[in-house]
Amino acid sequence: MEEMGITDRIDVVEVTVSRQDGSGGPDPRNPHPEKKVPYLIDGDDQVRERGALVAYLTDKFPESGLGRPVGHPQRGAFLSWLFYYQGVMEPVLVLDWAKIDHPALQATFRDLEAVCARLSEALDGQPYILGEEYSAVDLLLSSPFQWLPDAMPTQPAIRDWVRRCADRPAMKVVADRELAGV
Length: 182
Description:
- By secondary structure, the protein is mostly helical.
- It is 48% helix and 4% strand.
- The protein folds into two domains: 7-66, no CATH class; 75-172, Glutathione S-transferase Yfyf (Class Pi), Chain A, domain 2 (Up-down Bundle).
- It has helices spanning 50-60, 75-97, 103-109, 112-123, 136-147, 156-166, 169-180, and strands spanning 39-42, 45-48.
- The chain has a two-stranded antiparallel sheet.
- Strand 1 (39-42) and strand 2 (45-48) form a beta hairpin.
């Protein structure tokens, strides 16, 4: 929302959620059916899951330039990367963090090495996943490495890309806000 310049058009409600360390817990104010985040309410419509929220918001606010609207030559790549994050990258990162390994998981989701190889391949010769321009795909896919630096891959192309994404003014505003606990 910060990157899109729409923070004044969306009401953000902070809620507690159950955390891996046992802290937090379900918040009765949380409208998400599973008491998770993120969750967006837009009139009578509701959207959950990070990739779906990114697609929804970039479609709703195309003037931000972060999405690839219907008819754009990169629309398919944009949607593919959003779903790759949700369906492959996030599960692989969680499984790697939890030290869970099984051939069925690798066959279904791939492994961290394959995810990093795919990211490196996409970044070969270009600064961002979709080319020369930063998009919401870069915001979403770089975010785990920004918030969990221990998960940062060793590949220079990925490290440089994450740094470029983190250096954006909107990301600095968000990081400063998080540090301040606001």
